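Re-running the complex after MR caught last week's input typo. The corrected sequence lines follow. Everything else is unchanged.
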Amino acid sequence: MVPLSYYLVLSAILFGCGVAGFLIKRNIITIFLSIELMLNGVNLSFVAFAAQLKSLDGHIFVFFVMVVAAAEAAVGLAIIISVFRTRETLNVDRVNLLKL
Amino acid sequence: MIPAVDYIRILPELVLSIFGIIVMMVDPVLPEQGSKKPLGIVALVGTLAALAATAYQTGFYGEAFYHMVRVDTFSVFFHVVVLMIALVVILASYDYLDVQSIRAGGEYYALILFGTVGMMLMSSAIELVLIFIALEISSISTYILAGMRRRAAESAEASLKYFLLGSFATAFFLYGVAMIYGATGTTNIYNIANYLHTQQSTLAYLAVGLMFVGLGFKVASAPFHVWTPDVYEGSPAPVVALMSTGPKAAAFAVLLRVLFATGAPGWFWMVWVSAVLSMTLGNIGALVQQNVKRLLAYSSIAHAGYLLVAFAAGRQVGISAAMFYAASYAAMNVGAFAVVSHFASAGEKYVTLDDYAGLGRRSPVLAAILTIFLLSLIGIPVTGGFFAKFYVFSAALQSNLVWLTIIGVINSAIAAYYYLRIIVYMYMRDERSEAPVARIPVGLGIGLAISLVATIYLGVLPGRVLEYAIQGAQDLLK
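Corrected-run output:
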């Protein structure tokens, strides 16, 4: 049996890749994908813990996370389209009307 | 079998959801190019019905749906706060939508109602699964609301920034939930509390840290505050009134549950540092702003900091102070943004300090109302803001947080400068722009009256609300 820590490390790596992608990438779609990667890293943790603890809660949580991620994706892509319509770019550095 | 009383314990949420669906069903029947005011009335009735349902709920305290939600003084307190916010926001939007020619009135009101459902569930949920879903219901609704001025590029941009950073924060919160689940084997707040009461867990420290990052984004506390000014500047003003108070109050409710009800370890210094940073960065940032919406955004960051001071104080006295602060902050901030939304006029043109010059002569009533809200935000006596700050700082002193109190008081003094600057502009500067001021419409008038009465009431007779907050804090810790 593969020990729990392997899964947790992999999940942390996935989450870390997501965070890095979010911070480094400049294309809005790629940034959005990075967030999905973070969520899936979390899902892996949930499933691993659920298997370890022999409880169903973690598995159920993953279903809810996937449903919510789908809803978020629908809204997110709609927002990205509306940004593209007004700005005609998907580069975050050029979406800068509001100064940070 | 689920007993019928369980449905009473989620009655306000059910009522609001049904009215949200009614709004969406009535929308296609209305003429496409016409005003969407009838929908505003439906939303208003829905909010009032939900308030009545909340009042009815007080006779049925207890847990429901297999320990999913818990109705007690704590959750009812936040239900009322969130519903009052929604009420004022709907009233402020009543004429705003026509002025800005936003045609998507159906979506607008429905999303306000659904978002409110999410915020209410956040305060009554005691299961992390439900807390997560409620958080997402409220967040996703506000992401869309932020982009409601579809033709304005700033609005779309605000929506995008809010969405990206909000989802980023949610992922952190979720990772924290995964860790606490791994540490304790349960996702129920009170089961977690039982576990942590008897056993130590290193993983729990990590979990608390991650959840604090996630919720810190939602309440706009430093160092997770960078999105706030941009999003508030670009979003429609009544929506800012909603999202600077509603999701914030709800996220603070979740934070209270996660930090105190579970007896989680290791949050103190995190909260302490975040409180100091939020107060300082918020107030210093606000000093140099020319745009009133941005200025109020920085002020809202600072207020999140004051609230976190109460968190750092902890115990019953700190929790009740935090609850009182959330209520009085909601009253004054919603009012301030409602004034901003009216004065902004079509296309939200008039939002800089220069536009506010001479407002005291051009529209004495509007200026006087805004002045009262600003004085309350400073914390002048006879307004809610005074007692809110007073309780927070006295809670901090009771917990021997002398340095935090000193930093907080210094910050309040700095904050007075930029709030007074708006008042000086309104009364002592000659108007440079010819920004016309329309008459205050009836809907907005009622909304302003509600927040004005709430602000003054909390400043003159804070006793009953505070008693309620203390009761809520007891219920939370039970």
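None of the earlier attempt is carried over here. Chain A has a mean pLDDT of 89. The interface with chain B takes residues 8, 15, 18, 22, 28, 31-32, 35, 38-39, 41-42, 45-46, 49, 52-53, 55, 57-58, 60-61, 64-65, 68, 71-72, 75-76, 78-80, 82-83, 85-87, 95, 97-100 of chain A (CB under 8 Å).
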